[in-house]
Design brief:
single chain, two-stranded parallel ribbon, binds arginine
Length: 503
């Protein structure tokens, strides 16, 4: 790197020697922090308004600065179009949500050190020396803290929207399943029959908790670091509420040392995202199992399955396998961020730059996964006869049978033992409980009567769980309506917020 280029650095005044060329390349963050360009520009505009209010920029200078900042992304797009063919752009654009490939190559062509430097260079080119006033009263330390908060806030919004759509798909599928039953499992051994809808609604609960965790994170991070300076606060008497308001933060952050070095929000986002990933992975695992011949509960949608290059008969569940696999990235990112932060003294340390990539990885992986889930979930087809047959064999009505005896006045512990004995007898005979005659049953207790079979039928076995949150048919119908109401409320709130943000 020549001395000329070196002197273009934002901090080169006190240096006699240029940077080692290899080190210079290696420490640059532009190769990844270009993704923060929209946030950096929004934050710069807010800062410009704040210093204009403090008299640093005259009104016409403010206008010129804002216009110059607004032109940066369109220029990067133009440069991208000049550099790359349309075919290249199409071929390289990632299917995962959030990759702004449209302006990336144009930005990456720059030798700027980071996204902050890039904006300064571009602005200088566009509006001349006036651009050099923009850095008055600010530090990159508060800028990156602000950019990252804006980025995480935006991606939480996108994730919540996708989660709401996924929850809606579960509600739709549950409605379609009606009163159809399936076995439930504990220890992966058949336990009791449940309604398919009951099983599906379990995922709605997980998703709604995930949404509330993400929203908590968004509320906690929603304070504006601008005006915190490098560590001790801006050296100009800035009205920090101007920038906070401009960027739709609730208020300025309360402590400049915390604001410039806090990345809790990044960790919290990664943690909440990991929990979403764990839920996605459990779902993926269940679907993968249920789609095997051994279970035979689900027909995989062909649009989301692949064949084998070797075995002509195969239909493989690649989507669910990739979901299970990719969710690991979220946990990895979480560990990376936590490990990065734990040894850092206050306040800013360059290590913090390393929190960016795991945050981007979380957004890419999570939104990429969620983008397919509503459609995939809706496309699942259940094999009702197989599921119902499985729900009716293997003594899944034994709990209901014990409950029958309890209603006849037998203490539960005793009832458990009597039904256990009956199951053993039936097992040896190779039949189900419902196949035993009254005389056979009475070997285990005099309480058995002709109403026994009705009490252990599939519908009775379902309906005896008649409590809030239970799988009795009436309860599930209520739960479905309640879940639909909560999901619709979430969907309309999200739609409202999107409309609001666009305004
Ligand atoms: N790229 C840096 C980061 O991500 C920006 C802040 C640089 N601050 C500094 N004092 N070197 O953290």
């Amino acid at each position: 790197m020549s001395n000329d280029q070196q002197s273009a650095k934002m901090w080169s005044g006190r240096f006699r020697e240029p940077l080692d060329a290899g080190f210079e390349q290696w420490q640059r963050s532009l190769p990844f922090d270009w993704r923060l360009l929209p946030q950096e520009i929004a934050a710069s505009k807010a800062h410009a308004r704040m210093i204009a209010a403090a008299g640093v920029l005259a009104p016409d200078e403010l206008e010129t600065t804002l216009r110059g900042l607004d032109a940066i992304i369109p220029r990067a797009r133009k440069r991208t179009a000049e550099l790359c063919s349309e075919e290249f752009l199409k071929a390289t654009s990632e299917p995962e949500v959030g990759r702004a490939i449209s302006f990336a190559p144009g930005v990456l062509a720059s030798s700027a050190e980071d996204v902050h430097h890039y904006v300064e260079l571009e602005l200088t080119e566009a509006i001349g020396n006036l651009a050099l006033k923009l850095h008055t009263g600010r530090s990159r330390n508060e800028q990156i803290a602000t950019d990252m908060r804006l980025y995480v806030r935006k991606h939480i919004g996108q994730t919540v929207e996708l989660l709401a759509m996924w929850a809606a798909a579960f509600v739709e599928l549950a409605r379609k399943a009606g009163d159809a039953a399936m076995p439930s499992y504990t220890h992966l051994q058949r336990a009791e029959p449940v309604l398919i809808a009951h099983w599906l609604l379990a995922y709605v609960e997980m998703i709604l908790r995930d949404v509330s965790r993400l929203k908590d994170c968004a509320a906690r991070l929603n304070y504006c670091p601008l005006g915190s300076g490098a560590i001790a606060g801006a050296t100009l008497a800035l009205d920090r509420t101007i920038a906070a308001h401009e960027l739709a933060f609730a208020a300025p952050t309360a402590n400049s040392m915390d604001a410039t070095s806090d990345r809790d929000f990044a960790l919290e986002y990664a943690q909440a995202a990991s929990t979403v990933g764990i839920h996605i992975s459990r779902f993926a695992e269940e679907i993968t199992l249920f789609a095997t011949n051994e279970y035979g509960f689900i027909d995989l949608p062909e649009a989301f399955s692949t064949g084998s290059s070797a075995m002509p008969q195969k239909k493989n569940p690649d989507l669910t396998e990739l979901l299970r696999g990719k969710s690991g990235r979220l946990l990895g990112a979480c560990t990376t961020i936590a490990t990065l932060l734990k040894g850092l003294p206050l306040a800013y340390n360059k290590d913090l730059q390393e929190t960016q990539e795991p945050v981007f990885a979380v957004a890419d992986a999570l939104e990429g996964m969620l983008q397919h889930l509503p459609q995939f979930t809706r496309a699942l087809r259940f094999r009702h006869e197989r599921m119902e047959a499985a729900a009716q064999s293997g003594y899944l009505n034994a709990m209901a049978a014990a409950t029958y005896l309890v209603h006849k006045g037998v203490p539960f512990r005793k009832a458990h033992e009597k039904i256990g004995n009956a199951v053993r007898y039936a097992l040896e005979k190779g039949v189900e409980l419902g196949d035993l005659t009254i005389d056979e049953l009475r070997q285990f207790g005099p309480e058995f009567d002709s109403d026994f079979n009705a009490a252990i039928s599939l519908s009775a076995t379902l309906d005896c769980h008649d409590v809030v949150g239970g799988t009795a048919r009436g309860r599930v119908r209520q739960a479905l309506e309640e879940a639909a109401r909560r999901v619709n409320e979430l969907l309309s709130r999200e739609a409202e917020e999107v409309a609001h943000a666009g305004a």
